[in-house]
Amino acid sequence: MLRRSLKAERSKRLEHPCSSVHPWLKPAHPDWRENAAKKNSQLTLNQLRWREKWINTLIVFRLNQNRQSAFTLMELLMIILIVGILAALLLAGYSQVKARAQRIQCANNLNQIGLALQEFKTDHSFYPAEVDPIRWDEERNWRDALGNEMSIHHNVESYPQGVWHCPATHRPLDSFWALHKNWGYNDYGYNVFGLGSRFLPNSMGLAEHWFNLPNTTAQPSSRVNEAAVADPSEMFAMGDEFFGGPDIIEDGLMLARASDSVITAEGFPGYDSTQSTRRAYARHQGKANVVFCDGHVGSPPLKFLFADLSDEALSCWNRDHLPHRERLSP
Ligand SMILES: [Zn+2]
Percent of the chain beyond pLDDT 90? Predict the structure, then answer.
């Protein structure tokens, strides 16, 4: 009797594992265990292999997930290298954009200076003197004369501003400029002498150096008539202020081309030519902005301005549009 009741009780428990389970989760048949066992036994060998394979794949995936949660030293170095390369590319791009913007701003300045030159020529029919010895008014100096045409004053000498300031200029802070503060460092120069030494007679540029005149009180021979310029569209008038030869460029004092030996002899004792040459090449990435006598602006390479010996390069300095190689000797 007792045995029968125990058996009934056991079959009752087997019949339903949990009486509170949701109906959808209940086994479909009261003999669920037997059915499951029957189902497993019915799996083929192939199906068991597939099941094992999937389980292994899941295990490997989990293991990889755990491994990727931390960087190895090599991965960290690779990331640092990639970030460094990207930063260098961005900085290089930024500096190129900045240099281009400065070159355009400088060209705009020279464009305005070139317009002022055209207005001056219209008013006077001659080019402004470097320094006109007989005038002590606002047109004595070529910068003052062009500033007068632009109605701007007092922003040229020593620390040029506005259109007289090239934004790519890096002012030297060396001992030479510390000694000669009153000389002023200019960003733009005037093709006063043409090719060669500034002390050669018969200037080929746009003005006579008034110190070279026989009598410094006798002017207006320092002026060059407009008609004396053979090809205004091919002659330099003004530009980034460099006094250059094939290997040496001094900046900030005049716009002229001569041989290296003349620059060394006539240049400025104590001037650091190595540093100024480096500054010149850095200013507009190996180029210079110039405005021609007809008012158009160009950006020739420094090599064309100061080292090229072709007729085309040499004649751009001279008002008769001839090369005048002899003026480069020695
Ligand atoms: Zn410039």
Answer: 44
